[in-house]
Amino acid sequence: MTARFPVAGRRGRGLRGVLAAAVALGVLSGCSSEYDAADVEYAGDYSSHPPLAVVGYPSTGTLGITQQVVWRIADGEVGALAALTAHEEDRAGAERTAENWIAAFRKGAGGKVTAEFYDEGSYRQTVVLYLHATGQIKQIYVLPVAVRTKDVWRVSMREPDPAEATAVAPWIPKKPGELGSTMLP
């Protein structure tokens, strides 16, 4: 009987080929698996917080910054939340805004949250957070900014007045998805 696969019939050569492929794959994937501190921090945050429900069309950047805002509010981290501001020149205002957001929304941010992303997010995006445990609604604006010559997404934090920080605009629906994630003019 003749072998259908003569190479496989040679003892050890098939196994060596598989091992060589595994080593090559390991070397190639080893080069790309290095994580920087931000990746490690994000992974830790992601695994230690409830998942964020999403409605609408976020970009990777708008989703990432929105998750960080919710996590920092839930954790009560004023400095870390203020550091996400798009307006570095108004650091004191960002810290007051962070204090207001944490005082008002911390309990709700620690539970189930739905983020509705309005319109498309290539330049700036309105995001409405629905905090299910408390029934609260919070609108935020996320936008790209340059930080140390790198474009990143940040949040507008210009609500140093507690009443302004908790106000809900009249156009915002009571439930996610009611406007089809499209802002009214």
- Give the integer mean of the pLDDT values: 83
| Major β-sheet annotation | 5 strands, mixed
Instruction: Specify Rg, calculated over alpha carbons.
Output: 24 Å
Strand order of the largest sheet: 1-2-3-4-5
- Distance N terminus to C terminus? 79 Å
Q: Which regions contain 5 or more consecutive residues with pLDDT less than 50?
A: none
Number of helices: 7
Count of distinct strands: 5
How does this model look, in words?
This protein is α+β, with helices and mostly antiparallel strands. 43% of the residues lie in helices and 19% in strands. The protein has helices spanning 6-9, 13-32, 37-47, 60-75, 78-82, 91-109, 162-166, and strands spanning 52-56, 113-118, 125-131, 136-147, 150-155. Strands 1-2-3-4-5 form a five-stranded mixed β-sheet. The chain is globular, with a radius of gyration of 24 Å.
